[in-house]
Design a protein that fits this description.
By secondary structure, this protein is of the alpha+beta class. The chain has 8 helices and 4 strands. A 4-stranded mixed sheet has the order 1-4-2-3.
Length: 223
């Protein structure tokens, strides 16, 4: 019998260490360790510590598994999107929407998902057509958020953008009205900024794949 190892294992267990922690320090089988330590009782405080440790380890393992799945799925979406560029690369609507989103759209996966903001109603109309025709977004997934200075706000501003986007007011977020110290409208045609929001991270990844496919098609490499 490994008396020295048994004594050390017993000391560690009485300190409240888990079997896993002890096995990292003492090279014996888990079965042997169980026999050595089966009569040692842990205090309630030690049991609580071990329980919390197990929960944290389980959560960490779960998070790592989800991370690997997310990375694998992202790579698959991007790879498939890059291939799609070959068949739609000459479509004017596809290219114009992609370029506009590349320039003005939100690219962060930590944000809302897909978001495009602009004050030009023609550009918003174009992007709505792009999302509908090219991205095939269901109508119920669209959300609209308006930002406007207090000086330019008017009661029918939500209706104005509802007509532009063809999205019902029930799918509008509350309009953000920014206070201003100005007293006169500088631009009487200004109707605030309209943000198109789509809660879909996979679509954001697909757009990234389209962009990469387009760059590859015109032989532009980005490191």
């Amino acid at each position: 019998m490994k008396l020295k190892e048994k004594i050390r294992a017993t000391e560690l267990r009485r300190m409240g260490r888990s079997y896993g922690e002890i096995l990292k320090k003492i090279k014996v089988s888990k079965g042997t360790l169980s026999v050595w330590l089966r009569d040692i009782k842990l205090t309630p405080e030690q049991k609580e510590r071990l329980y919390k440790t197990l929960i944290l380890k389980g959560a960490y393992r779960g998070a790592k598994i989800q991370q690997k799945k997310r990375i694998r799925k992202t790579r698959q979406i991007i790879a498939e999107a890059k291939k799609e560029v070959k068949s739609v690369g000459k479509n004017a609507l596809f290219l114009s929407g992609l370029m506009l989103y590349w320039a003005e759209g939100d690219k962060s996966e930590r944000g809302y998902g897909v978001k495009f903001s602009n004050s030009d109603p023609a550009m918003i109309k174009l992007m709505m057509r792009w999302f509908r025709k090219i991205c095939r977004i269901p109508e119920k997934k669209f959300r609209i958020a308006l930002h406007i200075h207090e000086l330019h706000y008017r009661k029918d501003i939500e209706n104005y953008w509802s007509k532009i986007t063809k999205i019902p007011l029930t799918q509008f977020h509350k309009t953000f009205i920014k206070p201003t110290s100005l007293k006169h409208r500088k631009n009487p045609l200004y109707n605030g900024t309209c943000a198109i929001r789509i809660s879909d991270i996979d679509l954001l990844r697909k757009i990234k794949g389209w962009k990469m496919g387009f760059l590859g098609k015109i032989n532009i490499k980005v490191t």
